[in-house]
Amino acid sequence: MYKLLITYILFIVSGISLAQEKILPQIIDQPTNVDPAEYFGIESIAPDSILSLDSIEVDSATATVIEAPIDYNAEDSIVVSFDGQKVYLYNNSMVTYQSIELKAYYIELDLETKEVFAEGFTDTTGAVIGAPEFKDGQEEFKSKTLRYNFETQKGLITDVVTEQGEGTIHGEITKKISGDTFLMKNGKYSTCDADHPHFYLHLTKAKVISNDKTITGPAWLVLEDFPIYFPVLPFGYFPNSTTYSSGVLIPSYGEEENRGFFLREGGYYWAAGEYFDLAVRGDIYSKGSWATKLHTNYKLKYKFSGNFDFRYAVNKYGEKEFTDVFTRTPQFQVTWSHSQDAKANPNRTFSASVNFSTSGYDKMNSLSAQNYLRTQKSSSISYTKRWENSPFSMSANMRHSQNSTDTTISLSLPEMTFTMQKIYPFKKKKRVGKIKWYEKFGFNYSGNFRNSITSKESELLEKSLITDWKNGIKHNIPISLPNFNLFKYINVSPSFGYNEKWYFSSLNQTYDPENEYYDPIRREYNNVRTDTVRGLKRIYSYNYSLSASTNIYGMYKPKSKNSRIDGIRHKMTPSLSFSYNPDFGKEKYGYWQTVQVDSTGHVEEYDVFTGGIYGGAPSRGASGAISLNVTNNLEMKVLDMKDTTDTAADSNTELKYKKVKILDNLSFGTSYNLIADSLNLSPINIRGRTTIKGVSINFGTTLNPYATDSLGRIIHKYMWSQSSGLAKLGRLTRANLSFGMSFKSKKGEKESEENRQAVEEEQLLPGDYSNYVDFNIPWDIRFNYNFNYSRTNPYEKGRFTQTLSLNGSASLTKNIRLSMNTNYDIMAGEFSFTTLNITRDLHCWQMSFNFVPFGYMKSYSFTINAKSTLLKDLKLDKRRSYYDKF
User: Fold this and answer.
1) Please, how many CA atoms are within 13 Å of residue 720, restricted to the half-sphere of its CB?
2) CA torsion angle for 430, 433, 438, 442 (degrees, to 10)?
3) By C-alpha distance, which of 674, 671, 736, 737 is closest to 705?
């Protein structure tokens, strides 16, 4: 009875779908999960959805066993066959079964065979609408037609397009033989994501295992629809796994004039696990040079991460038979980067940034101009500790710096610093009333221990830890005293500072008339013998200072009502300070000693702590200096002509003004030593900065107020009394001027789009707009000029330096970009390092041309390669290395 009732209902539904177009939407619009018994008023039908057809009772001989409901819907119409075993879906159709989801314009569902057929609709223009889209978990693909069996998970697909890893696979005829395996004939494999790939590997046959691998039979490259049959690949293997795995690293090949043919960066990658990996690479050259490289990345989630590199290279130049021109130079480099997760421990941190190598490594092994030109390197390994709810913290560091030009290397192993933030011992914890003056007393502390050495790279291992390494401890206790206002407008700030240095050795000099010694202090040979005395020695010093500053404003208002200038404001900030340092050269301190230096009995003073890691002893003689500095800022408010023009028609509109800076900063500074017996006034420093039409200009000069004798030595006579004109202000000893400008196009992609629309709408040009080049693409160019002058001796010629740097970029088209960088020494009349770079975006490919036209690094390289890292070896590379110029 139930079977006959259901059949009758399906017959009525199908009849209404075909004959009653106006009634059809009322039936189709019902949700797919509506209970048909409730909808049709039949109480005896099963409670499951009519679209979940596994619940319908049928004859046991023809029972359809489906593990889960099959849900479906369509936008236009749903037609069910008379026997209820086939369903036809039209327009934006969708069928879901477990994790499987199928979308298409037309879908035919056979419940008896558990098969589904889907295809798109081809309109009058030939475009396909609603092509089948299949999704099963992470597996997705598009096709022209699809026939699929839910039970066996097998299917037949035409013109399939699916993404596998970084690549895209197109298949003419594809057979799905299991849930994740496809067999394909006449396929295409490409990393180009265009509907019609610009390049691909033509696969005669292939087996694709989703998210795992693709194995192909004979294949050849097709570039812009042009087949390249030679060489034919007999088979291929493309990994599609979403997880990384171990494997061989394919080397790059080429030739250098001096080292010969080479294979570079070949090796093996080991995917050790989720915590670290390891890559071992190597280089080999036909003339005997070789290199080995080790790289590892490591990470512990929520704790730390980093990477480590070790590289060792042996470069051979020349022939062994000719020992005068044959060289063999082993070089190495170590880099290490380590960072701690911010959430791991807020009070303890450990970090490392290490870049250490032998001086010649970059010169002989770098593959980029940037590394080749680098002469300075530094490293730091740091550990910091902060104590909660306290002002104390501590840090321990190991530092390194080196200069590859002169092979000088400096090491600090270790360097430890203990600090205490400023505390106010007299400040009340619970505030009652205003702050008392004595509550403003505060001080902080910092202590530093350092053990370091500076040496030539080749001599470092020969140095003695006791005699050659410098070490010491430094204490610094600045004390801030209460500041106050004088005459309401002048802010006065007194301060006191105490410093102490501990050294573990000092110098003792004696006169030895029988022998000569090299004196590193005087840089000459004489009869003075210098001995190092071991033992703890302390140097303490202190100073007082008092500073006062205020702001003075001046305003000028034009009298004319028609003036564009609303006003000019001048802000002057004078500051005056006094500092006093006692005479620590007195005998009671023991910092300075005397020694006879020649047979005449001439005696000189020397600092027993010369060469100390924190410097020597405080200077001899007391110092009471008054320092003066005046800073000026000048700006004006002018009428905004642009805004005024826009609103000129409205007489009631308030005029708008804008601020313009005339001088960002113009400062004068000098000091006068009240205690010195001569040359009390220090040089006058003048610094300034301004902006004109967006161009930032910096300038400065130094004037020495004292004259010189005939040998150029400074004497205690002011230039004011010795010269005339502007020279009365002082001798010009230094001057500098620098400014830079940048230009860029005002038109950009917005204008390009407007041009495109105008051309296409008004048909201004024949053919398609894409065939024309639009030059409304941003470009920019920048240059900087630097001028420096110095002349300490008026009887010698001054030294000038002038340099001009120029760099910029331009997009000749949307995909072609040109960039250049050069520096020109105007005084020498020659260019320094210059580069020219051209890049071309070819969608799935890229082209680059790098050119160094002259100089020691004269070279060029031209490369066309696929963008995908999976096909990084698919490239054309032509280069001439600067190594060929050795």
Assistant:
1) 5
2) 50
3) 671
The pair of structure tokens assigned to 456 is: 């030539």
pLDDT tens, 51-104?
333 333 333 333 444 567 788 888 888 888 888 888 999 999 999 888 889 999
Contacts of residue 250, defined as CB under 8 A and 6 or more positions apart, other chains included, come to: 266, 873
Cα separation, 864 vs 871, in Å, equals 12
Q: What is the percent of the chain with per-residue pLDDT over 90, rounded to a whole number? A: 22
When the pLDDT of each residue in the chain is averaged and rounded to a whole number, the result is 81
CB atoms under 10 Å from CB of 189, counted, come to 24
CB environment 445-455: b (16+ within 10 A), e (fewer): bebbbbbbbeb
In terms of Cα–Cα distance, which of 299, 233, 290 is closest to 263? 290
Model pLDDT for residues 571-605, shown as the tens digit of each residue: 999 999 999 988 888 888 888 888 888 888 888 88
The model's pTM is: 0.65
Tokens of 783: 């240059």
Reply yes or no: is the peptide bond before residue 231 cis, omega within 30 of 0. Answer: yes
> What number of CA atoms fall less than 13 Å from residue 122's CA on the CB side?
3
Indicate the SS3 state at residue 545. Answer: strand
Cis peptide before 414 (omega within 30 of 0): yes
pLDDT digits (tens, 9 = 90+) for 147-188: 998 888 889 999 888 887 778 888 888 998 887 888 988 888
Please state, in angstroms and rounded to a whole number, the distance separating the CA atoms of residues 369 and 833: 9
